[in-house]
């Protein structure tokens, strides 16, 4: 940095530049306020429409942060519904299985039956109840809507914003990304003993990449003069945030378009990796031409690689409060950092690729699975240590540099919403 005018943070004076308090990362009382004022009032991503393609398909999602579990189901009309997994009779969980297909939901305690919209349709010995009206005892509905194939739920019966209103201010120009042409190639789930914000923070800045990822992808980044990974650009909205990054196009990981574009892109990616990372080079050669779909850069929405960088690697999109979507030209990562307690969170990571039509394409996916697994393990290696260090109380604040602006914005948004509620 040579001039204060080059700071991203100068665009957002409301964020300030002061050190950020550690207390929200370690306080159980603060977490209870997050549950009440954020998670129980905000749209939360719970899955993809491809998980329930047919009428009667369903999955059950535990939302510990909302003190509930929801059934997400496609009804007979093809609409997606969400309901609390609680029987209206004696409050047993209606569905025990985590996913499946059914014509109706039957409570295993006393046999009450509900249709795919949650209406009560059957009660054994119904005449023994006292003036019971079936329409009053259906499954309790959860607000549910879909954005670009992602299913979201909201615990409020009448959310303050529709899902479209929630998403469009920052992500309207991302709509049209080919989510529907990509399928879940691999996934991971892990419970991590750290605060959810602390975990998300580790993924929403690139300052750490040259250091934490020195053994995996450090050669794939586009480094600044200082040796770290400087963002191309950032966007901080009312609650959402975005960051765009460049990569080393002469590497397999740093040039994600190579496997589907082939040609010059593949030749560039192989320029250095053939010698330095022979397995990566072999995987790329095997996978080229195998993808079921093509993804020309000019066909992507204008909000993807919005700086039009020739060295573009990917865009980080943090959908408030805890959903992270990393968009590349031909694949994307979808990570959820869902809190369980003030010092524990559930990480769910899915990576979506185009379907591969050859054995070579499958080999490429297996290589990328291992490569991304190693990156995730490196990221996770710091989290529980950082949480333990924060809880010592040795430091009350953390100091952030300009490239960590998304960390600053996240802390600011959470504190603003909780403060407004108080």
From TrEMBL:
Gene3D superfamilies, alphabetized: Naphthalene 1,2-dioxygenase Alpha Subunit, Chain A, domain 1, Rieske [2Fe-2S] iron-sulphur domain
Record SUPFAM superfamilies: Bet v1-like, ISP domain
Keywords: 2Fe-2S, Dioxygenase, Iron, Iron-sulfur, Metal-binding, Oxidoreductase
InterPro entries: Rieske_2Fe-2S, Rieske_2Fe-2S_sf, Ring_hydroxy_dOase_asu_C_dom, Rng_hydr_dOase-A
Enzyme kind, highest EC tier: oxidoreductase
Protein name: 3-phenylpropionate/cinnamic acid dioxygenase subunit alpha
Family membership noted in the UniProt record: Belongs to the bacterial ring-hydroxylating dioxygenase alpha subunit family.
GO MF: 2 iron, 2 sulfur cluster binding; 3-phenylpropionate dioxygenase activity; iron ion binding
Cofactor: Fe cation
Domain Rieske: 43-153
Organism: Cupriavidus neocaledonicus
UniProt xrefs under Pfam families: Rieske (PF00355), Ring_hydroxyl_A (PF00848)
């Amino acid at each position: 940095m040579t001039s204060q005018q080059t700071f991203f943070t100068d665009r957002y004076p409301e964020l300030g530049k002061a050190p950020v308090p550690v207390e929200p990362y370690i306080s159980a009382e603060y977490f209870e306020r997050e549950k009440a004022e954020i998670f129980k009032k905000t749209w939360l991503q719970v899955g993809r429409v491809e998980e329930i393609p047919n009428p009667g398909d369903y999955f059950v999602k535990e939302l510990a942060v909302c003190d509930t579990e929801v059934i997400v189901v496609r009804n007979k009309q093809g609409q997606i519904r969400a309901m609390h997994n609680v029987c209206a009779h004696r409050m047993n969980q209606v569905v025990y299985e985590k996913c499946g297909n059914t014509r109706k939901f039957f409570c295993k305690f006393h046999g009450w039956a509900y249709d795919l919209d949650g209406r009560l349709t059957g009660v054994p010995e119904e005449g023994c109840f006292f003036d019971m009206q079936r329409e009053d005892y259906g499954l309790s509905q959860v607000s549910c809507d879909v954005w670009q194939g992602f299913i979201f739920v909201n615990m409020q019966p009448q959310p303050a914003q529709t899902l479209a209103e929630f998403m469009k201010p920052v992500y309207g120009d991302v709509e049209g990304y080919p989510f529907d042409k990509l399928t879940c190639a691999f996934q991971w789930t892990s419970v991590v003993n750290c605060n959810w914000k602390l975990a998300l923070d580790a993924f929403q800045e690139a300052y750490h990449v040259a250091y934490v990822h020195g053994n995996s992808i450090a050669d794939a980044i586009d480094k600044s003069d200082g040796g770290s990974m400087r963002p191309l650009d950032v966007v901080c909205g009312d609650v959402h945030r975005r960051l765009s990054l460049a990569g080393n196009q002469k590497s397999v990981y740093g040039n994600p378009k190579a496997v589907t574009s082939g040609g010059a892109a593949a030749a560039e990616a192989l320029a250095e990796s053939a010698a330095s990372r022979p397995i990566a080079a072999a995987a790329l050669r095997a996978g080229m031409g195998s993808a079921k779909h093509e993804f020309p850069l000019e066909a992507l929405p204008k909000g993807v690689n919005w700086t039009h960088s020739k060295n573009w690697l990917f865009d980080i999109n943090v959908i408030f409060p805890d959903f992270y979507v990393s968009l590349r030209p031909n694949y994307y990562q979808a990570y959820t950092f869902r809190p369980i307690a003030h010092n524990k969170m559930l990480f769910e990571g899915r990576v979506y690729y185009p379907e591969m039509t050859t054995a070579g394409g499958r080999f490429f996916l297996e290589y990328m699975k291992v490569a991304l697994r190693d990156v995730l393990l490196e990221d996770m290696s710091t989290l529980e240590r950082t949480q333990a260090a924060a809880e010592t109380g040795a430091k009350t604040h953390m100091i952030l540099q300009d490239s960590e602006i998304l960390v600053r914005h996240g802390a600011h948004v959470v504190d603003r919403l909780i403060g407004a509620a108080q």
